[in-house]
Amino acid sequence: MRYRIFPLTLWLVTSAAFAVTEPAIIPLPKSIERREGVCELIPGAIDPGADARPETKAIARFLADRLSERTRQNFHLKSNLDSVKAVELRLAQTQASPESYTLTVKPGHLINIEASDEAGLFYGAQTLLQLLPPDAKGSANLQLPSVQIQDQPRFQWRGLELDVARHFFSTDEVKRLLDEMAMYKLNTFHWHLVDDQGWRIEIKKYPKLTQLGAWRQNVGFGLDPKKATAFGPDGRYGGFYTQADIREVVAYATSRHINIVPEIEMPGHSSAALMAYPQFSCTGGPFTNDLPGGIFDGVFCAGNDGSFKFMEDVLAEVIDLFPGKFIHIGGDEVLTNNWKNCAKCQARMKQEGMHHEMELESYFIRRIEKFIDAHDRRLIGWSEIREGGLAQDAAIMDWAGGAIEAASSGHDVVMSPLKDCYFDHYQSKDIANEPHSIGGYLPLEQVYAFEPIPAKLAPEFRKHILGAQANLWTEYIPSFSHVQYMLFPRICAMAEVVWSPREARDWNSFSHRLEIHYKLFDQLGINYRHPSAPPQQASSAK
Ligand code: ACM
Ligand code: ZN
Fold first, then answer.
1. 3-state SS string over 21-58?
2. What is the extent of the structural domain holding 97?
3. Which residues are near ligand 2, the ion (C-beta closer than 5 Å)?
4. Does ligand 1 have an atom closer than 6 angstroms to the CB of 333?
5. Which of 192, 269, 482, 517 is catalytic?
6. 201: β partners
7. How many domains does the chain have?
8. Annotated catalytic, 269?
9. What is the chain's pLDDT, residue by residue, as a tens digit (542 residues)?
10. Residue 359: CB within 6 Å of ligand 1?
11. Angle between the 490-499 and 507-524 helix axes, to the nearest 10 degrees?
């Protein structure tokens, strides 16, 4: 592994009569070799190669569109008539690892991106876009530094979770977020589609889920309705995605090499579902989704076979909409009071020889896992699905512990610990000058210092740590610009944690590179928090 990185404090090098911006790439590539000379980026064709597959052509078109937007010059997919080539994309038959690429920017004017899969070509294109100066508008014949970059990700799961249940975000906003994730080579969008305060995905067999569960009287959480953006025609707060919307977003994500992991919470956090179908609860209801933050007794009855039939019907439609391998079933923070007092749940426990209600949760998850497995998908759930025994092929998402135990017994794990990955927490201790948040404190430096592999995990089990993700719960985040504010720049730090080699992490280099990215955010209209305050001591959140 080589790190030959040009001194990052030297931002501008004068070459001939032009300023060339030195590379300020985030996440930092595995290897950057700065070469003599500069390359002229001449407006022209992006060449995906003869006989290119449609997916490769799509990347060429994507790159042409982004280059045209950023420079206001004409870049386009190569046609037979073109003579001026700006960039070549080449899929090579190599043994290179998935998602890796080589980007060569040679003196003269040819730029080449080579990879063994389309994801690699796409990431090479994203890196090339980061070689442009933040404001490249109207510059004919831009000069780029001459470099050779070889790059590959450290982890396969580079994620971001967005809660659209507490507050709703439109398909256009979600697509914008996917574009912003792709800029930083994040490849997993965990879409938290349902919770106590809202059900956001159309299920054809159970229309009341969205007719009732997608709308509530108020913005909720004591927030000012004027700061929120999602209202129905009758003034109620909410919204949902039709199945056509979901297909459109999935296709959009696929074109950005992002897999969507849908989350359908069960058996707890289900007040919105049970408001629509109370017959699947222990008490028969009624339930409401006009709820503050917290944990509620909107829990499915685990003694009623009808609850499982309902969940399987819902999951069948979800599986049909989302092509990715993982289906997230939540499983966190289940209040078992209702199960203690329910004759059906108690009968189930007796019949199955169970002594504690947590075993009933395990029963619930195992039964759902059989259904998910039978559809050739894999179940993932929050830390708590371990309690009472983890289903055989299940993966866990560690927010509250359990990674070491799960990985050491052969289960795959995604790291998103509360302390380091909860982007709903404050970014500064000066909370009087921050938008109201759920609490906690997660400064940029702490995200950057986060190490996904638990130190106590034995080396032979490290392969089970698939990666990590940032979680954005939205109780106090009622608009998309606020979403961006909570994400940027912390998501850039998370991107470097999950993509770049562990040994290459360097806070000074990262914070210098970020200065260029703040300018890019200004150009792209991304809302962000500029840490103009002096760096603060990292401390535990909550
Ligand atoms: C969680 O934060 N309850 C997963
Ligand atoms: Zn029950």
1. ECCCCCCCCCEEEEEEEEEEECCCEEECCCCCCHHHHH
2. 2-151
3. 282, 301, 303, 342, 344-345
4. yes
5. 269
6. 241
7. 2
8. yes
9. 333 443 333 333 333 334 566 799 999 999 999 998 899 998 999 999 988 999 999 999 999 999 999 999 999 999 887 778 899 999 988 778 999 999 999 988 789 999 999 999 999 999 999 999 999 997 767 899 999 999 999 999 999 999 999 999 999 999 999 999 999 999 999 999 999 999 999 999 999 999 999 999 999 999 999 999 999 999 999 999 999 999 999 999 999 999 999 999 999 999 999 999 999 999 999 999 999 999 999 999 999 999 999 999 999 999 999 999 999 999 999 999 999 999 999 999 999 999 999 899 999 999 999 999 999 999 999 999 998 778 778 999 999 999 999 999 999 999 999 999 999 999 999 999 999 999 999 999 999 999 999 999 999 999 999 999 999 999 999 999 999 999 999 999 999 999 999 999 999 999 999 999 999 999 999 999 998 744 333 332 22
10. no
11. 130
Q: How far apart are CA 71 and CA 129, in angstroms?
A: 10
Distance 403 CA to ligand 1 centre (A): 15
Query: Is the same domain home to 147 and 161?
Result: no
Do 76 and 162 fall into the same domain?
A: no
CA 447 to centroid of ligand 1, rounded, Å: 18
User: Which ligand does the CA of 360 lie closest to?
Assistant: 2
Distance 282 CA to ligand 2 centre (A): 4
- Secondary-structure percent of the chain, ordered helix, strand, coil, rounded to 5: 35, 20, 45
User: Are 104 and 193 members of one domain?
Assistant: no
